[in-house]
């Protein structure tokens, strides 16, 4: 039995929550994952995992052993980084995840500048409005929108982004301009299934907040589709402010009910908590953070 391989498989199972998720992450058969963990338990003569129907649970012995495995593998990775020169100069591959519009308009241009400044670094960027699992998908750093739950990630705020209500001038000319949130009940709204409770729109702040159940004739699965539909006179859309900068400036869309907008949501760069941050990731964070803040209009960052 290759104990280092078995340790890696065990950690993948623990971090992803299941043997099947570890199989997908590591791209090895589920039977192999299960067999390696069982071999490790037989070698140690101790039960490490309780295999439930939904999620793996560590035994007391398993918690101690996993903590030791994590230290051993991190020390091994650091030794390899030192041997390959990663601590002498930033190098290697970075995997980056970002929402579609923020990624295309802001992250990609800054990433190109970064790669020009650091010729020994390669990058792979994943643009999707789906929230990626950093550990399961082996993502080094991601742009996340919204408040972040307490977890094993480090976050650096790069922006505050408003949720904007908008419609085309032609739509408003034929349906009227809403004066308050409740007026939306009689409007045709475009909803985005990427959000939970997509047809329940929140307005206002604190005690003055209210939720309006909107009627939707068109449901889309990307923010870009919502913007395109709104420009094409399909109705009222609710999107993020960075997604409609150009249509608002050109007059293709009109911003509505601005006085009732909820508190802007934060945008953050996030990466997994780790004992030693690779030099390539440190260089990326130092380079892109001030540039993204400038592009997104976040001039006076607070600690996050």
From TrEMBL:
<dbReference type="GO" id="GO:0043565">
    <property type="term" value="F:sequence-specific DNA binding"/>
</dbReference>
<protein>
    <submittedName>
        <fullName>LysR family transcriptional regulator</fullName>
    </submittedName>
</protein>
<dbReference type="InterPro" id="IPR058163">
    <property type="entry name" value="LysR-type_TF_proteobact-type"/>
</dbReference>
<feature type="domain" description="HTH lysR-type">
    <location>
        <begin position="1"/>
        <end position="59"/>
    </location>
</feature>
<dbReference type="InterPro" id="IPR005119">
    <property type="entry name" value="LysR_subst-bd"/>
</dbReference>
<dbReference type="InterPro" id="IPR000847">
    <property type="entry name" value="LysR_HTH_N"/>
</dbReference>
<comment type="similarity">
    <text>Belongs to the LysR transcriptional regulatory family.</text>
</comment>
<dbReference type="InterPro" id="IPR036390">
    <property type="entry name" value="WH_DNA-bd_sf"/>
</dbReference>
<dbReference type="Pfam" id="PF03466">
    <property type="entry name" value="LysR_substrate"/>
</dbReference>
<keyword id="KW-0238">DNA-binding</keyword>
<dbReference type="InterPro" id="IPR036388">
    <property type="entry name" value="WH-like_DNA-bd_sf"/>
</dbReference>
<keyword id="KW-0804">Transcription</keyword>
<dbReference type="GO" id="GO:0006351">
    <property type="term" value="P:DNA-templated transcription"/>
</dbReference>
<dbReference type="GO" id="GO:0003700">
    <property type="term" value="F:DNA-binding transcription factor activity"/>
</dbReference>
<dbReference type="Pfam" id="PF00126">
    <property type="entry name" value="HTH_1"/>
</dbReference>
<keyword id="KW-0805">Transcription regulation</keyword>
